[in-house]
Amino acid sequence: MTPPEDQRIVEEVARGVFRIRDTCDVYLIVADERLGGERTAVAIDFGSGAVLDLLGGLGVDRITDVLMTHHHRDQGQGLPLAAEHGARIHVPPVEVDLFARVEEMWAGRQLDNDYNLRQDRFSLLESVPVAGTVPEYRTADYAGVRLRPIPTPGHTIGSVSYLLERDGSRIAFTGDLIYGPGKVWSLASTQWSYTAHEGPAMTVLSCYVLQDERPDILLPSHGHVMRDPDAALGLLAERMQYHVDSKRWHPWDLKDRLRNPYVEITEHLLMNRSSLATCYVLLSENGEALQIDYGYDMTTGLPTGTDRAARRPWLASLPALKEQFGVTRVTAAVPTHYHDDHVAGLPLLRAVEGTEIWTPSNVAPILDDPWLHDLPCQWYEPIHSDRILPVGEPFTWNEYTIAVHDQPGHTLFQVAYEVFVDGVTVLFTGDQQENLGIPGQRHEILNYQYRNRFRIRDYRASAELYRRVAPGLLLSGHWEPRTVDEGYLDYLRYAGEDLIEMHEALLPLDELDLGADGVFLRLCPYRSTASPGSVVTFTATVRNPHRARAEARLVPVLPAGWEPLQQETLLQLHPAEERTVQIEARVGDERCRRARVSVDLTIGDLRLGQHAEALVDVL
Question: Which end of the chain is more exposed for a tag (fewer CB within 10 A), N or C?
C-alpha cells in the first residue's frame, strides 16, 4: 500500500501502473514477474527522480529501465539519479544527441540573430549515459515489460509514445502530445520555425496516428488521464487543424494527407505527395512494392536547424500504401542519390519492414561513410547497402527490368532509373532539374550545386542520356511529373549547352582548368577520429589545371604538437592529370574536437596555399 503522505502524488491508474506527480507525471510500470527474486519496474520519463523515494511504498525493489518520451528537462532532469540507481536509459532515436552529447548543443547552438524557435535549450544541462534508442514501431521487452514505441511528433520533433498491453487494455503513454481532450500542455513548443507551423501540423497527424492504434487509456506527461482516447484525440486534431489553417493562406486537409498520401501516375506507379523529396512506389502483380527514394515521409515542412534532433524520419504513409493498394511487403528501396531528403527513412524502413536497400555503385560509398567526403546534405549515420547496383547495368525486380544510368549534375553521385511500366518508359531523375509539369509555364531551372561536385558539362551529358532513353515521363524529386516530347528534349540540350557557355564566359577557363568549383586538392577522410600519439593517414587527390606538365608540391600543415611523417610530397603531373597520394602524421598529445589538418599546395607557378583541410576529433 502507498503510505498516506504519498497518496496525493501517487495514483494507480491501471493494475501495476502508477502515476507519480513530479516535474512531469512519471509512470512506473511494475513487471508481472519477479526478476531474480526482485520486484522490478520500468519508468516512463523520470522528472526530478522523486520516484526513487517512493519505490519501497509501492513494493518495488528497483527500476531496471527508464524510457523517455522526449528530451525536455522537466521530463528528465533527474536522469543522473536514474543512472546512479543502475537503471538503463533509453531515448527516442531522433533526440539521442540531446541526451548522450548535449554539451555539443550547448557549445554550438546559435544564440545571436536566432530564428530557431525549437525548444532544444530546454534539454538536460549535462549528458547522461544512454543504453540505447527505442525501436520505433517494434515491441521490445524491458525486464519483463513489453512496450511498443511509435513516433508522435508535435511537442518536439522526435517525441514518441509508448503502448502497453495490460489486462486486455491498451495503454498509451503520450508524453506531451496531449494534455486533455482537445488541449496541449504547450503551444509554444510546437512552433519549431519562425512564422511556420510544422509542429502544430505534425500534432494533428500524430493524433490520427495514435487514434489508429486504438488505445483504451491515454496517460500524458502533464494533464489528465483520458479514458475516451478517440474523442480526446479527435478533438485535439480538430482544434489544432484550426490553429494550422489560421496561419495559412489556404486550408490544409491534414487528415486527407495522412489517409490518401499516394497519387496514381499509372496503374502500377505511385507518387507519395506527402514526402519532402517526392518518393515513388513501383507495384508488382504479386503484391510487393519497390520504393524509389525514401527520405522524410509525411512531412509538414523542414524545421529550422540541421542538427539530428531537427530531422524526423517515420513511416506514416505505409498503412495507406498497404490498405489502398494491396501491398504486402516493400521488398526493396533504391535511392537516386545520397541526400538526406532522399534516404533518411531508409534505415527505419529496413528495420521495421525488412526492406532491403539496393544502392547504385557510385552512391553506396557515400552512404557507407558520411565522414569520407566534404559533401552537403548527408545523413548523420552510415546507411549500409544490402545490394550494390552496378552503374550502367540493368537489374531485375519481379517482372520489371530497371536500368541504372550515371547522371551527374545535381551531384556527382547520382543516377537515373529507367523502367517500362504500364506502356510508358519512365525515367526517375532525382533532383537533376525542375520539372514543372506544365510545358511553357516558365523556363525550368537546372538544379546544379557546386559543393555537390557539379561539373560544367554534366547537363550536356544528361540531355544526351534523355535523348537516348526517350522517356515518355520524367519523375523528379521535388516537382510534378513531366511528360516528354521532342521540344522538351531540345530545350534540355539547349540548357546544357547554355550552362557550359555561361561558365566559360565567367571563369578564366582559357587560362586554367578551374573546373566548376575551383578545387584542385581534396583530403579524405574529411572527418575522422584518432587517439593521442596515433598515426593518421589521409588520401590527397590533386589535379593539374595547367595545359602543360607541372610539378605539384604538397606540404602538410598540422596542429601544434603534431608531427608530419613526410615534410613534403612532389608529384609530376601531366595536363589535367589527377593523382592520389598518402599523407601521414603523428597526432599530438592534446585531446580536442575538430583539429584542423591542411595541405599547402603549389602546382607549377600556381601558388594556392592551404587549399584543403580535414578535421580530426582526438579522443
Answer: N
Q: pLDDT value at position 566?
A: 92
Please choose, from the candidates 615, 609, 392, the residue with its C-alpha nearest in 3D space to the C-alpha of residue 521: 609
Q: Name residue, grid cell 513548443.
A: 189
Listed in order, strand segments (DSSP E) in 212-354 are 217-220, 262-266, 269-272, 279-283, 288-292, 329-334
Q: Residue 1 above 60 pLDDT?
A: no
* CA R_g for the chain: 28
Please name the residue that has the C-alpha cell 511528360: 483
Q: Please name which of 186, 189, 171 lies closest in space to residue 222, comparing C-alpha atoms.
A: 186
| 352-374 tens-digit pLDDT | 999 999 999 999 999 999 999 99
Cα–Cα distance for residue pair 450/410, rounded to 1 Å: 9
The predicted pLDDT at position 4 comes to 44
Ramachandran class of 546: left when φ > 0, alpha when ψ lies in -120 to 50, beta otherwise: beta
- Contact (CB, 8 A) for 496 and 452: no
Q: At what angle do helices 229-245 and 198-212 cross, to 10 degrees?
A: 160
Report the alpha-carbon distance of residue 537 to residue 365 in Å, rounded: 18
The answer to whether the CB of 174 falls within 8 A of the CB of 217 is no
Residue with cell 553506396: 364
d(CA 613, CA 591): 19
Rounded Cα–Cα distance for residues 432 and 471 (Å): 15
> Which residues, 6+ apart, have CB-to-CB distance to 336 below 8 Å?
292, 293, 342, 407, 414, 415, 416, 417, 428, 429, 430, 431, 477
pLDDT score of 148? 98
